[in-house]
Specification:
Helices cover 49% and strands 19% of the residues. The chain is α+β, with helices and mostly antiparallel strands. A hairpin with a 2-residue loop joins β2 and β3.
């Protein structure tokens, strides 16, 4: 993918987030906060029979935190909590600049955030949803 495509992915998910809404059927929720910039979100998941069947988030934040969380939800809905944790670990490796091409491929559109590793001030923005997911899954699975 080119940098333009990466930018298009982020812009699209920021302007047209599919998962930015309440989720009345949520079986678990967890709040996340980036005190550095004030980004705040609550992640809502419905986990049924060991599968994340739906997910959403509410809250406010910069374009990167909102787009990253929306992309994350696209990626984890339909997967098991263990698969979601694996993807979260890969995302962390990508952000730290320590990911293989094969691992990057597993992240699909989330790979659009790879260049954030070169912008230390934005890392917390990109990882807010992912860290909130990790905490939620650790507490609920």
């Amino acid at each position: 993918m080119t940098n333009n495509l990466y930018n298009e992915v982020l812009i699209d998910h920021n302007l047209h987030p599919q998962h930015l809404h309440e989720l009345p059927c949520a079986t678990c929720s967890n709040a996340g906060l980036n005190p550095t910039c004030g980004d705040s979100l609550t992640l809502h998941l419905n986990i049924d029979n060991g599968v994340i069947t739906d997910g959403s988030f509410t809250g406010v934040g910069c374009a990167i935190s909102q787009a990253s969380t929306d992309i994350m939800l696209d990626l984890i809905i339909g997967r098991t909590p263990q698969e979601a944790k694996h993807l979260g670990n890969l995302f962390g490796k990508m952000i730290s600049g320590d990911i293989t091409d094969d691992e990057l491929e597993e992240l699909e559109e989330a790979g659009a955030l790879q260049n954030i590793s070169k912008m230390p001030a934005r890392v917390k923005c990109a990882t807010l949803g992912w860290k909130t997911l990790e905490k939620l899954l650790d507490e609920n699975t």
